[in-house]
Amino acid sequence: MTVSSALVLFSGGQDSTVCLASALQRYDRVETVGFHYGQRHAVELEARQRVLEALRAKFPQWAAKLGDDHMLTLPALGAISDTSLTRDTEIQMSASGLPTTFVPGRNLLFFTYAAALGWRRGLSTLVGGMCETDYSGYPDCRNDTLQTLAKALSLGLDASVTIETPLMYIDKAGTWALAHELGGDALVDLIVEDTHTCYLGDRTHRHAWGYGCGTCPACDLRANGWAQWRGGELAD
Ligand code: ZN
């Protein structure tokens, strides 16, 4: 019997946690990779460990499949980015119409490193939480970009590389709904309690949808998605 396997790009945020759950549901062996590139907030990196521990503790059927976690340090990415995620500048929309949280080409680099790591680990399916429906329109989150990259990586590694993005065409309400479908209330509670999305790294304010400042674009998306999903749930 062949063992199916995947490598999940995992940041400790809501989206990548749902992607990880989705991979654990579908594959026999799943490893995770995270990137440290000078993010302003250690909060994100702490969330990764907390979420992995919680998944292991609360979902024994997934714990058996969850393998090694890898952390790659990419300081060059922080050095060449003048953005709100890595520096103390205010989050706003830039002249190009992209928010200042944009790190140019970030996902291209992440997937390229993940593919190289996967090659060594025998993991040819890469899973990421990129999504075209977010307000932000990051060009490196587009399906075309990522599927073309998968083709380039397959050629460059002379091995088939697949990139899966389970959230590509669903919105934040859909992400909550998918979490519930995959792991019920237990997974929704885990995401609320343990994941982190707030751009400001705020873990002092607890809302129904989790921790965060409540006003940054990431909190806005998460809160609106939650309200929409809960509204739909109550209407059913
Ligand atoms: Zn926030």
Tell me what you see in this structure.
With 236 residues, the chain is an alpha/beta fold. It has a single domain, classed as HUPs (Rossmann fold), CATH 3.40.50.620. It is built from 8 helices and 7 strands, in the order E-H-E-H-H-E-H-H-E-H-E-H-E-E-H. The strands form 2 sheets. The chain has a 5-stranded parallel sheet, with helices on both faces. A two-stranded antiparallel ribbon has the order 6-7. The longest helix is centred in the last third of the chain and has 23 residues, at 172-194. The N and C termini lie far apart (42 Å). The mean pLDDT is 88. The protein binds zinc ion.
Give the structure's gist in a few sentences.
By secondary structure, this protein is an alpha/beta fold.
How many strand segments?
7
Distance between the termini: 42 Å
Question: What is the count of distinct domains?
Answer: 1
Instruction: Quickly give the structural class.
Output: alpha/beta
**What bound compounds does this protein have?**
zinc ion
CATH architecture: 3-Layer(aba) Sandwich
CATH fold annotation:
Rossmann fold
